[in-house]
Amino acid sequence: MSDKTKRVDELTNSQLDKAVQDIIQFYDFTFFGERGVEEPLGLCFALEYQAASFGLVGDWLYEDVEKYNSADMMQELTTKLNERAAVASEKTKYFWENYIKPNLPY
Predict the structure, then answer these.
(1) pTM of this prediction?
(2) Residue 62 CB partners (closer than 8 Å, separation 6+)
């Protein structure tokens, strides 16, 4: 694990906007039913990949799990993604609100 882990509040709007688009593309491309995976589980994996890709995963998550842990971080990331999707293009907002958000695990 990295000792230079980022926090969610250090992510830029540009990074979050790209993640919104990446998650939409992943959802649109993936045939969940053909893989025997329900959408919330598939999106959980996509979100966890995004967190790792952003460098949000590190030892600090395990320092005091009573105060802040990986579930808290994932909830914070999901909240930020929802906020960015809400100010995106109409097409992005529609897709996020109707397909992504109802299936988000956090």
Answers:
(1) 0.86
(2) 69
| Closest C-alpha among 30, 18, 26 to residue 85 | 18
Q: How many CB atoms lie within 10 A of CB 58?
A: 17
Rounded Cα distance, 9 and 80, in Å? 9
Q: Where are the beta strands (DSSP E) in the chain?
A: none
Residues 6+ apart with CB under 8 A from 54: 6, 11, 15, 19, 77
Q: What is the pLDDT of residues 34-49, one digit of tens each?
A: 889 999 999 999 999 9
Contact in structure between 56 and 6 (CB atoms under 8 Å): yes
User: Encoding tokens for residue 69?
Assistant: 């842990």
Mean pLDDT of the region 54-82 = 80
pLDDT of residue 49: 94
Judge whether 47 and 74 are in contact, CB under 8 Å: yes
Q: Give the number of other CB atoms < 10 A from CB of residue 94.
A: 12
Percentage of residues in the chain having pLDDT higher than 90 = 68
